Amino acid sequence: MGDRNFFAAEGRRLAVFYAAGNIAGMDTVSAEKRSWTMSQVKGRDTKPEKVVRSLLHRMGYRFRLHRRDLPGVPDVVLPKFHVAIFVHGCFWHRHQGCGRASMPSSNVAYWRKKFERNVNRDAQCRELLEKAGWHVLVIWECELKDMAALQCRLTDFFEKLRIGGK
Ligand SMILES: [Zn+2]
Hints:
Layout: H1 2-19, H2 28-39, H3 47-58, E1 64-65, E2 76-78, E3 83-88, H4 108-131, E4 135-140, H5 147-160
Parallel strand pairs: 3-4
Antiparallel strand pairs: 1-2, 2-3
Helix pairs in contact: 1-2
Bound molecules: zinc ion.
Zinc ion binds next to loops.
């Protein structure tokens, strides 16, 4: 199956990455995320983020990118409304009930542990942000298939914050 080759390749990439000593002093999860991102040759401007940004822009919202001082480094931040948005890949962040969050057929224990770390970290970051007064919104990659629905969801979200305007 293509999946298996893909994961074998990803495993090798990670091994090379670790062996290269590139992660000294770095958080393991972010190293993995970085490795994954690098493997996608997308850098920080992954496509789903761009799509969400241009939608927000069309809706008239002003935002900032990747506030490194915030837990989890949210993909988009709207400082005026204290909103932090994460655009999550369904697979890596385990979108519940989503077909894209499949479990690889080999090395199950390895992947389960890795996924668990990601999910726990996401929950931790959300908690820290909310404690600091941020409103956190997670947009799943699969939601980008239906932009009209996503726009409705964003509108609802902002309206619930009573900030319907810009
Ligand atoms: Zn999904």
